[in-house]
Amino acid sequence: DYVIFVAEVASTCNEALLMQYLLGRTEDKKERAYLINYFLEQFRTTLYRQTMFAEFELKMSELTAKGESVNAETATKVYHDLIDLYFGPDIVHDEYIDLEWARIPHFYYNFYVYQYATGFSSAVAIARHILETGDASEYLRFLSTGGSDYPLNELKIAGIDLTKPDTVKSALEVFANTVKEFEALL
Fold first, then answer.
1. What integer is the mean pLDDT of 123-133?
2. 9 neighbors 155 (Cβ within 8 angstroms)
3. Residues 33 and 111: beta-carbon distance below 8 Å
4. Are 52 and 86 in contact (CB under 8 A)?
5. How many Cα atoms within 13 Å fall on the side-chain side of residue 22?
6. How far apart are CA 155 and CA 184, in angstroms?
7. Which of 28, 51, 138, 139 has the greatest number of beta carbons closer than 10 A?
8. What SS3 state is found at 110?
């Protein structure tokens, strides 16, 4: 009876380990660039974008809590401003991107999307630890819990404490180092 959040961490950690395995075995510049780009896209779509989604949900809920009207015009404006905040002032808004909020089914659940960003950060930090130390024992103990405790407690077994910023910082360091490698490769 594990929760989906724990399953996401496990599968994403294995994806991060596989990515590092593949990168460690290629010397072809085009293949390496492809793999690095794929990995960076996972950060963009999971860590950054899902955090933006969570902030959108929060802002919509705050407006509702204040008794303000929330309609398509309001949601589109809030979403537009978040796109600018997260992706910078040079982002090009096509005619449909500001309406993306209307097609994201996760927005109709209670604050679910943040779990993708925190799960991805946790997975990348776990994979980083395994690769740097060669020790997967904490991760294997985490996997063996099988939903027997709260997810935050289970993650602590794997060396992840989501009550502190260290996990996200670790994932962002991996992202920054990967961007540097990508730039050097290009």
1. 95
2. yes
3. no
4. yes
5. 15
6. 34
7. 139
8. coil
Residue 63's contacts (CB-CB under 8 Å, 6 or more residues apart) are: 70, 74, 78
Rg (CA), the chain: 18
- Distance between CA 146 and CA 6 in Å, rounded? 9
Under 8 Å between Cβ of 152 and 162: yes
The 10s digit of each residue's pLDDT in 148-174 is 899 999 999 999 999 999 999 999 999
The pLDDT tens digits of the residues spanning 35-71 come to: 999 999 999 999 999 999 999 999 999 999 999 989 9
Q: Which one, of 46, 43, 39, lies nearest residue 115 by Cα?
A: 46
Q: Residue 68 has what pLDDT?
A: 93
Distance CA 77, CA 58 (A): 14
Backbone φ and ψ for 137, nearest 5 degrees, come out as -60, -40
Residue 179 CB coordination number (10 Å): 13
As a whole number of angstroms, the distance between CA 86 and CA 22 comes to 30
Q: What's the CA gap between 170 and 155, in Å, rounded?
A: 15
Whether pLDDT at 1 is above 80: no
Provide the terminal-to-terminal Cα distance of the chain, rounded to the nearest Å. Answer: 45
d(CA 6, CA 154): 8
Give the chain's length. Answer: 186
Angle at 21 between CA 16 and CA 24, to 5 degrees: 125
115 residue type, one letter: Q
